[in-house]
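Record UDP-N-acetylglucosamine--peptide N-acetylglucosaminyltransferase SPINDLY, 505 aa.
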Amino acid sequence: MGDYSKALEFYEKALKIDEKALPPNHPSLATSYDNIGGVYSDMGDYSKALEFYEKAHQIRENALPPNHPNLASFYDNIGQVYKNMGDYSKALEFYEKAQEIFEKVLPPTHPDLAISYSNIGGVYKNMADYSKALKFHEKARTIREKALSPNHPSLATSYSNIGGVHNGMGDYSKALEFYEKARKIDEKALPPNHLDLATSYDNIGGVYSHMADYSKALEFYEKTQKILENALPPNHPNLASSYDNIGQVYKNTGDYSKALEFYEKAQKIFEKVLPPTHPDLAISYSNIGQVYKNMGDYSKALEFYEKAHKIRENTLPPNHPNLASSYNNIGQVYNNMGDYSKALQFHEKSLKIKEKALPPNHPSLATSYSNIGQVYNRMGDYSKALELHEKSLKIKEKALPPNHPDLATSYNNIGRVYNDMGDYSKALEFYEKDLEITKKALPPNHPDLATSYNNIGMAYSGKGDYSKALSFLEKALGIRQKSLPPSHPKIQHTKDNIDYVKKEM
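=>
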């Protein structure tokens, strides 16, 4: 139910009894430490979690033979804490220790071995090493397909994990294919209000959201919400996460009042049930900050981004990727406010963390270079802007499949610099590369496609080719009128561009 203080109270009572009644190396004592460590992990207090897991570890290492499966399960727990802390090399170290034991003592199709491979796959996914992630998730799937019945929920988990990797790669049709496989199993194997079914709907909603099919996304997110409202108490953190997802859809469609309504529902729950320094609370504040940023209310945006930042500074190790996200968010607000030196200061802090914490070809590193490039572009330092956008592009070309939407973003950023320099033919060259990918990767009414048409239209306008400009701007307007609410500022912006071009013709 997410009542962590109550859980701790009972586990600590049990521990006191065990400490009095049992010798210091008794296995039951290790279980007590394990339980307390698990609660701290769920609370996001990872240093406390590690402290108790280490105590359990010492007892088990002394009491058990070196290849005992319980020792492997314990390494899995520690691996998960390090994964949550963003320390992926440490997470892998412990997950691989568990894997070694399981491979020695279990038959090759044992379900625990599948869990071990899944855990390792999850870390590689977070590191954006998608080929390695797929390799381990496929290993887990092979075991489960051999060892379990075709409608076993653990098989659905494997399909979901593989779907998640394809989602990360921007291959949304593949992601849907696997998420739908998982859903079919869950709908057959589980009761209609089972939480795993809610997760299935949530995953599918997430893909539709990425594809900008917002009505479909809402349909699945609301299915999730219904299950959670029936199955969980009204202040459960999972319900808050569901409200967050719905809020994100409304934010993406430009319905900021609706977005705030759902984000604030989530915030209220998190503030009631989570400790004030829980990472999920930081995410909640960040979400609200983002809406205010999009609304142009920069002081409110900074207020919420700073709240998120404080939590992350107090709870996370100094090189955690989420801390980098906080600096990045604050940097973007300063960039929008035109305070470029402040923007650079925060974006560079973000970059420093990512350079330490992430592999050199991680897409998140590319995002940092792009963000800094955008600041230099606004400052009119076009050569610096190009240098950074090209660095970003190189990483994305190595790390992502050739039709990934993030690659299109890079071409768009480079095109914008050339456009601002007045080199419209160069700008068009990159804008058209962006359009080519965007048309392949996204549905025909995706707002990003409208942005592509708008940019090409304005480049033609810069060249004085007003009839071509008008043709692209009208395409942009058509999409925006279909995909965005009528009051969205981008619709008016496109209309203004069309009026300008018509006057010049």
